[in-house]
Write a structure and sequence with these properties.
Peptidoglycan binding-like domain-containing protein; signal; PGBDSf; Peptidoglycan-bd-like; PGBD-like_sf; 2 domains; Muramoyl-pentapeptide Carboxypeptidase, domain 1
């Protein structure tokens, strides 16, 4: 191979490596590691699996929170909202009725992710 071909090949590989590096670095600049999961609450999209996880977890914490058990039907409503508020109060969090990263983190850690809900709830880890 000629000297010019080697330089062109080297420049191409350097540019490709730079693009890969930029792509990798831009993917790590997320404020919330599990930010792909949707928040749960009034005015949110409330994905079925996410709501079902909130319901299962709040039911397993109902003795600690003092809130009654709720139907595990994946449908967000008054009971699920109340259960979220009860978990937030129990955990000493701001009571806004929305499962965001802090509430999600508490729910996952309190149950040691017994229900496999980590992919469906926003968390801090």
């Amino acid at each position: 191979m000629s000297n010019i071909s080697m330089r062109r090949r080297g420049a191409f590989l350097s540019a490709a490596a730079a693009l890969v590096t930029v792509g990798v670095l831009s993917g790590t600049a997320q404020a919330v590691p599990n930010s792909g999961s949707l928040y749960v609450g009034y005015g949110r999209s409330n994905a079925y699996a996410s709501v079902k996880c909130v319901q299962q977890i709040s039911n397993s914490l109902h003795y600690q929170t003092g809130y009654h058990t709720v139907a595990v039907d994946g449908s967000f409503g008054r009971d699920t909202y109340g259960a979220i508020l009860a978990v937030q109060k129990w955990a000493g969090l701001q009571q806004d009725g929305v499962v965001g990263p802090q509430t999600g983190n508490v729910m996952i850690e309190a149950t040691k992710d017994e229900y496999g809900c980590y992919p469906y709830l926003p968390t801090l880890r």
